[in-house]
Design brief:
The structure holds 3 protein chains of 3 kinds. By secondary structure, chain A is mainly alpha-helical. Chain A is about 75% helix and about 0% strand. Chain A has 7 helices and no strands. Chain A has helices at about 1-5, 25-55, 65-70, 70-95, 100-130, 140-170, 175-205. Chain C has a 6-stranded mixed β-sheet. Chain C has a 5-stranded mixed β-sheet with strand order 4-10-9-6-7. Chain C has a domain at about 130-290: Cupredoxins -  blue copper proteins (Immunoglobulin-like). In chain C, a hairpin with a 4-residue loop joins strand 2 (about 145-150) and strand 3 (about 155). In chain C, helix 2 (about 35-70) runs antiparallel to helix 3. Classes of the chains: A mainly alpha, B mainly alpha, C alpha+beta.
Chain lengths: ~200, ~700, ~300
């Protein structure tokens, strides 16, 4: 390692300063940082899943998972979120060709499907709450509500982000800033689908 | 309301009520007027010097990593002082309240603080020292040094860097507010359940603790993302991984710990918050809750956290010791390996904080073994530092004194650590003052390394050295204070004294407690000399001016910038040829800092947004603590609006032309003292060389 | 200048150390005066641990001191090797010795944990035909309640046990987490609400020992102490008999009153002649169903002698 670590140089050929090096690939740096953020977000969900694993059977004499969870409905929600992610992915393909109207259209589709997902979820929880099945009843319900609604809250932030991006695409077109933000949003949106799959498999099934 | 809250609640001011302001407690009232006096003095000083514009432009709205680092360290030092006052109060209470016949004052049965106040003081002491003193100081050091060491112009995300700083400041402000409005947590810095649940902590104290820790942890997580991205993406050309300076390596491993474990703390605090605010049952004793779950989640974060603090400290030692030995670091590769080994294993040791929770022999054995394994990696580091000094030329400037004391303190710290890792022994000393002495011993290692690092890199940032004689005096009083407080504390642990006692029922413990009080007095003297050192150093700064290589025998690339470092760091990005690039250039006689061929550079613009976000976060925290829902909602909306508005800001960078850059750089070179080329050249002997002009292709 | 300060400090610290060690009689070092096999084993293991570690730490410290003295810059004649920074031999030693040490310590830990395992310590052995004493412990805010299910009696803030007899504890809390610690007899185990932990101990000889909670449990935590009296077997039987002659009864209702948050600053003890059966399990059940004994807001903001506010 030492011979490669230190260069042996001929006196006339040393380059001490590199004036051309100033700009780093801005988009790559931004998306890399966002992956790091996603790592931290994944850890939050990992902690929440651990909590659910430990508290998931503590019914305290109240409603059990089998009694209140409907895999069929959750499957519908899964399909909705998958198509939303697919739509957004297609929008990113359009981005590669610089097709502004296609990108906007696909974002709109993803947005509508995302809203549908959130709507379905709110409807399900309102139904539960109306029947007195509330997070204060038992540890299982606390854990269930929290993990699903945390995911839902992430979805809501993603939708808000999509709206902002739509405005930015309309106003600025595909500048460096807009592009890296769209790429980050793509990572975020895909991640929400992955987390939903985990929710679906470990909680609903 | 979903939960049963003691006391009044109104939609306008939430739980705020006049009895929440401790106007009848002379200590708090005194603290209030003291703080007010300092704030007023500072405001008057800045106004009379006409420096509000300067303050706003150069510091409050900056995104420059060096200034942000300085502000981090400043916040850390101020909160270190606050935490120190808490320590003085703890020690004084314990020495006064010994025996059933000891007098009671100010509402206490014994001593001068009843449990209601004493419990807050030690909880604040712990929380402040970890979250608001140690973390900001070390994060500040990493902020200043890492971009310079890797030849970058700033961190990867300068705006995010500033956001992290102001979130930390907001959280610290929240802690300081808790002193004057309401109370702080009574349940220790850890916040174990179910003591922190609403029935057993009915006041706002735990809420202050929850939100201040939550907000500052968010800042730390963002900072960790920033540092990792900077080290991975922004290295100068030629800086292969095998040439990365050791401090940057330890910063990388520390921040990988941070980005993976702080979210676990976020989750744990979130769930406790839900228990307190919505009446859920995550950690309650009843209704299916599992109080042990909080302990596990907290310490899954908590143990890696201490390695997040210790690794940059070790990195600083690995920079200081080679510089003041005149030799490269011994065993660079194994040091890097050991750093990542520590980081990795730290993830598997958390249960050693609660061996006595009753986990059963197999589980306890596993965690005991894992904990002891960390000792292997740490031991390797100690020996590598020793062999760095072997056959070196040791100079004992202040940074080296701090470094040596840190290494010596690591020996008993590690020994006692391996004692508590031995489970049967831990059954006797868990939660005793022996344990307190052990972890303060380790914290002293971190503190000494941090103080050494500050005096080491201070000349680089500010262009002049700190006063040496006073620095040495500060050092010796710190050492004396540490010995006088913690050696008796170890002994008290063997006598059976447990921690967090506001009333000490056994008079046989008094002599050692008196010695500890003397020790705190020595720390007070150290604090006095520290302030004096800063004053004298600033006053005499023109006498102590230094050039780029402030210590004369530094090795890594940050010493290739002018002192103080220009806002753009390097006028032209250097190309790296070796580990210890500056030492290599000295050996080759290439010590000129003047590049030919300047180019335009992009720099990020100042922005007030991070400051605004900090202020809004403080308001949000305050609103949530007091359950002032309208304030919370408005602050949250404003935060989101500000973030979105910033996203629409297109004018965030500016360009410095090549001509302008050359002019600036010539100015810095002209105002620097002659570079100290006290370079030690291979083959022995000292030589002083004038640097020949650098050569470039095309010359 | 440095050496002068150093010498002064060295002198001060040596004399203070002498003062410290000379002034305290070792009798007060509870951890070094075990009176039972569990505490005794724990002390022995700690001692072996320290000795093994000192074998590494002391030479390391001496090595560091020697390097500092020998290679200081003001000393002209030491070898200076500015390019030497690697040695495989040294690396093997500095990795190998800690690995071996940790392996040895790990083995000691593995054995030792089973010897003092709270759920079944191998060092607490019943003599043939001997019945262990069962004591159920309930902690409240901020009292210790010791139930003797076989004898149907209970005591508050006082534990009485016969010597040379294994004592098996079952522990729960009515409120928050505590831990039981009797330094001269047995190490700690947590006591948690809604749960049951266990501990075992044995007292070698008659005596009075201090016990307390080592885990902070709120404002009254500091006063949560209890005396442990180890009596001869005859003395213990006599004590049980006398207690059973008393008049106080501990019903579930009486327990709820006892468990209200209160701080006993006077060190009072209470004896119950009869205990409603199943109290221990009842308390666990109630806590699991959500029972709490809430702390008063701003409790102990002002304390005066004799009040348990």
């Amino acid at each position: 390692m030492t011979s490669r670590t230190t260069e042996t140089v001929e006196p006339g050929e040393i380059v001490l300063w590199d004036a051309r090096h100033d700009s780093h690939d801005r988009i790559a740096t931004r998306t890399f940082g966002f992956w790091l953020y996603m790592l931290s977000d994944a850890m939050i969900f990992a902690a929440l899943f651990t909590v659910y694993a430990i508290l998931g059977h503590n019914y305290a004499g109240g409603p059990t998972a089998a009694q209140i969870l409907h895999p069929g409905r959750a499957l519908i929600e899964t399909l909705v979120v998958f198509t939303s992610v697919l739509a957004f992915g297609l929008g990113m393909s359009a981005l590669k060709h610089g097709n502004r109207s296609a990108v906007l259209n696909w974002i709109a589709v993803a947005f509508v499907l995302g809203v549908a997902f959130v709507g379905l979820e709110i409807q399900a929880f309102a139904h539960l709450a109306n029947h007195g099945i509330v997070p204060q009843r038992s540890a299982f319900l606390s854990a269930f509500y929290t993990i699903v609604l945390t995911h839902g809250l992430h979805m809501v932030f993603g939708l808000l982000w999509m709206a902002v991006m739509a405005v930015q695409v309309l106003r600025d077109g595909f500048t460096d800033n807009v592009v890296y933000r769209l790429l980050n949003l793509r990572i975020f949106w895909h991640f929400q689908a992955v987390i939903w799959v985990c929710v679906f498999v470990f909680i609903y099934l | 309301m979903l939960v049963n809250l003691h006391g009044p609640w109104s939609p306008l001011v939430g739980r705020l009520a006049l009895p929440q302001i401790p106007y009848d407690n002379p200590l708090v009232v005194g603290a209030f007027f003291f703080s007010l006096a300092i704030a007023v003095a500072l405001a008057v000083g800045v106004t009379s010097a006409g420096r509000w514009g300067y303050l706003w432009r150069e510091w409050l709205t900056t995104v420059d990593h060096k200034k942000i680092g300085v502000m981090y360290i400043l916040v850390g030092m101020v909160m270190l002082f606050r935490g120190f006052i808490d320590a003085v109060m703890i020690r004084t209470q314990q020495v006064m309240a010994v025996g059933a016949h000891s007098a009671g004052h100010l509402g206490a049965l014994h001593g001068y603080m009843p449990p209601f106040h004493f419990d807050q003081v030690y909880s604040a002491h712990g929380a402040i020292m970890i979250f608001f003193a140690a973390t900001p100081i070390l994060v500040g050091l990493m902020n200043i040094v890492v971009p310079l060491q890797i030849g970058a112009r700033d961190m990867a995300y300068p705006y995010l860097n500033a956001v992290g700083l102001w979130l930390t400041v907001a959280a610290a402000a929240l802690v300081m507010l808790s002193l004057f409005v309401g109370d702080f947590s009574h349940a220790g810095w850890i916040g174990l359940t179910p003591l922190t649940e609403l029935p057993y902590s009915p006041g706002v104290g735990v809420d202050y603790w929850l939100w201040s820790v939550q907000i500052s942890s968010l800042g730390t997580t963002l900072g960790a993302i920033n540092l990792i991205a900077t080290i991975i993406k922004m290295r100068a050309p030629g800086m292969r991984w095998s040439r990365l300076p050791i401090f940057s390596w330890t910063s990388l491993s520390a921040n990988i710990i941070a980005v993976t474990t702080f979210p676990v703390l976020t989750a744990a605090l979130l769930l406790l918050t839900l228990d307190r605010y919505l009446g859920t049952h995550f950690f309650t004793a009843g209704m299916g809750g599992n109080l042990m779950l909080y302990t596990n989640l907290f310490w899954v974060w908590g143990h890696p956290e201490v390695y997040f603090l210790v690794l940059p400290a070790f990195g600083a030692l690995s920079e200081i010791i080679p510089t003041f030995s005149g030799k490269p670091l011994f065993g660079y590769a194994t040091m890097v390996l050991a750093s990542f080994g520590i980081a990795g294993i730290s993830w598997t040791t958390w249960l050693h904080h609660f061996f006595t929770m009753g986990a059963g022999p197999s589980i306890n054995t596993f965690f005991s073994l894992a904990t002891m394994t960390v000792g292997i990696f740490t031991g390797v580091k100690v020996f590598n530092w020793a062999f760095t000094m072997y056959r070196g030329r040791l100079r004992f400037d202040t940074p080296m004194l701090w470094a040596m004391a840190a290494v010596f303190l690591l020996l008993p710290g590690g020994l006692t650590g391996l004692m508590v890792a031995m489970v049967p022994a831990d059954y006797q000393v868990h939660n005793s003052v022996f344990l307190v002495a052990h972890f303060h011993n380790m914290i002293a290692v971190i503190a000494f390394a941090a103080l050494g690092a500050i005096s080491y890199w201070f000349p680089k940032v500010f262009g002049f050295k700190l006063d040496e004689p006073l620095g040495k005096r500060v050092f010796w009083y710190w050492v004396a204070g540490s010995l006088m407080v913690f050696v008796p504390m170890y002994l008290l642990g063997f006598m059976g004294m447990t921690r967090r006692l506001d009333y000490v029922s056994h008079p046989s413990w008094l002599p050692l407690l008196v010695l500890e009080e003397v020790g705190i007095g020595l720390y007070c003297i150290a604090a006095y000399y520290q302030v004096k050192q800063l004053y004298v150093s600033v006053r005499d700064r023109h006498v102590n001016r230094v050039g780029a290589d402030a210590w004369g025998m530094a090795r890594s690339m940050e010493w290739m910038t002018h002192s103080p470092v220009p806002f753009y760091n390097f006028a032209v990005t250097p190309r790296v040829h070796a580990r210890d690039e500056w030492a290599w250039r000295r050996e080759q006689g290439l010590t000129s800092l003047h590049p030919d061929g300047f180019q335009d550079i992009h720099m990020p613009k100042n922005t007030a947004v991070p400051l605004i976000l900090g202020g809004l976060s403080c308001a949000l925290g305050f609103g949530l603590v007091w359950r002032i829902w309208w304030l919370s909602a408005v602050s949250l909306a404003a935060i989101m609006g500000t973030v979105i508005a910033r996203a629409f800001e297109k004018d965030t960078d500016y360009v410095i032309s090549a001509v302008e850059l050359e002019r600036l750089d010539a100015g810095h070179a002209a105002s620097s003292p002659e570079p100290q080329t006290v370079g030690i050249v291979a083959g022995g002997g000292l030589a002083s060389r004038q640097a020949p002009s650098s050569r470039h292709p095309g010359d | 200048m440095d050496t002068r300060i150093f010498r002064t400090l060295a002198g001060c610290s040596t004399s203070l150390l002498a003062l410290m060690l000379g002034g305290c009689s070792t009798r007060h070092f509870w951890l070094f005066h075990p009176h039972g096999p569990v505490a005794g084993t724990e002390m022995h293991i700690m001692g072996i641990d320290v000795l093994i570690l000192l074998i590494i730490i002391v030479p390391t410290a001496l090595l560091l001191v020697w390097f500092l003295w020998h290679y200081r810059a003001s000393r002209e004649h030491s070898t200076y090797a500015p390019n030497w920074s690697h040695s495989t031999a040294i690396e093997l030693i500095v990795w190998g010795v800690p690995v071996v040490t940790v392996a040895v310590l790990g083995y000691i830990a593995f054995q030792g944990i089973r010897e003092v395992n709270p759920y079944d310590p191998t060092v607490v052995v019943s003599r043939a035909g001997e019945n262990p004493l069962t004591v159920d412990v309930i902690t409240t805010d901020w009292k210790w309640l010791f139930l003797y299910p076989k004898q149907h009696i209970a005591t508050v803030d006082r534990l009485v046990v016969p010597v040379q007899t294994p004592v098996r504890f079952k522990l729960t809390s009515a409120t928050v987490t505590n831990s039981i610690f009797i330094p001269e007899l047995v190490g700690q185990i947590y006591i948690m609400p809604g749960m049951r932990t266990e501990q075992s101990m044995l007292a070698n000889r008659p005596g009075t020992y201090e016990g307390f909670s080592a885990t902070q449990s709120g404002p009254g935590f500091t006063w949560m102490q209890f005396q442990t009296k180890a009596l001869s077997e005859a003395g213990f039987r006599h004590w049980v008999h006398r207690t059973q002659q008393g008049s106080r009864v501990l019903t579930y209702t009486a327990f709820n009153k006892l468990a209200r948050p209160s701080i006993d600053t006077e060190g009072k003890t209470i004896q119950y002649a009869r205990v409603q059966p199943g109290l221990f399990d009842h308390v666990i059940e109630e806590v699991r169903d959500g029972k709490v004994f809430p702390t008063h807001w701003a409790m102990t903001e002002h304390m005066s002698r004799g009040t348990s506010n």
